[in-house]
Specification:
Blueprint (H helix, E strand, L loop, with lengths): L11 E5 L6 H12 L2 E4 H11 L2 H12 L5 H12 L8 E4 L5 H12 L7 E6 L2 H9 L1 E4 L5 E3 L19 E2 L6 H15 L1 H8 L3 E5 L4 H16 L1
Helix pairs in contact: 1-9, 2-3, 4-5, 6-7
Bound molecules: BIS(adenosine)-5'-pentaphosphate.
């Protein structure tokens, strides 16, 4: 009798960490390295704001103040994105979940397709360094590649390494005051999820204070281990 076909479920990875921990930077690299799809609720919300959708209009002021957008809005946006076919390659959730309610809703959503969280990776950093990281951040206006005034500059000044564009932009919530509010929201509402995923036996911790390349290598080791 032929062996039953081996079915592997797509990986579901979560990057947990405060603003500036490097979630977006590393999620894009994991996407390149492993073909996983980055799902950033921050990016999805910013797109909704730019398009002026009802969700975007409701989220705008909250995001500019550094608070958390309501679970209802975030879950509706994420659910739509997770219905697209590319998620079958496996996903890296960047900035989601951020509350107990979002974590439970994610479990229920995955359960509908017999999936569960493969690993939740806590990117551990010193809060004090995060204000400088976030305040120095900018991205390519065309392809979204991320840069930093000191830590990650383009090889040729003023020209994006990835697409050659010379247009860059900065986020309106990347100022010192809003970053402090975002750090507070992280510690109050998101950091408790570290214990939640520890309880599920899927928590991994990464020292995210090192060089970007070192953090990338550490994360790659985890991904190979849990989803390789
Ligand atoms: P979101 O867009 O998710 O922002 P965030 O969580 O505050 O995180 P950041 O994007 O600021 O930081 P990051 O960890 O991605 O760091 P990055 O890689 O860019 O959310 C924005 C807002 O949307 C929230 O405040 C909230 O209002 C709303 N929102 C989003 N999701 C939500 C949800 N689920 N529920 C409710 N509301 C939600 O790195 C930062 C900089 O540092 C870069 O310049 C980078 O080049 C540099 N850098 C990265 N790694 C290193 C390193 N190792 N060493 C030195 N520099 C580094």
């Amino acid at each position: 009798m032929a062996d039953a076909p081996v079915t592997t479920k797509p990986a579901v990875l979560i990057l947990l960490g405060p603003p500036g921990a490097g979630k977006g930077t590393q999620a894009r690299m994991l996407q390149e390295d492993f073909g996983l799809v980055q799902l950033s609720t921050g990016d999805l919300l910013r797109a909704a704001v730019a398009q002026g959708t009802p969700a975007g209009l409701a989220a705008k002021a909250v995001m500019e103040a550094g608070g958390l957008v309501s679970d209802d809005i975030v879950l509706a946006i994420l659910r739509d994105r997770m219905a697209e076919p590319d998620v079958s390659h496996g996903i890296i959730l960047d900035g989601f979940p951020r509350t107990d309610g979002q974590a439970s809703a994610l479990d229920a959503l995955l359960d509908e397709t017999g999936q569960s969280v493969t690993a939740a990776i806590s990117m551990e950093v010193d809060d004090g360094a995060m204000v400088d990281r976030v305040a120095g951040r900018y991205t390519c206006a065309k392809c979204g590649e991320g840069y930093h005034d000191s830590f990650k500059v383009p090889a040729k000044a003023g020209v994006c390494d990835k697409c050659g564009s010379t247009e860059f932009k900065r986020r309106p919530d990347d100022n010192a005051e809003t970053v402090r509010a975002r750090l507070e929201a992280y510690h109050d509402q998101t950091a408790p999820l570290i214990a939640y995923y520890e309880g599920q036996g899927v928590l991994k911790r990464v020292d995210a204070m090192g060089e970007i390349a070192d953090v990338r290598a550490e994360l790659a080791g985890i991904v190979k281990d849990v989803a390789g």
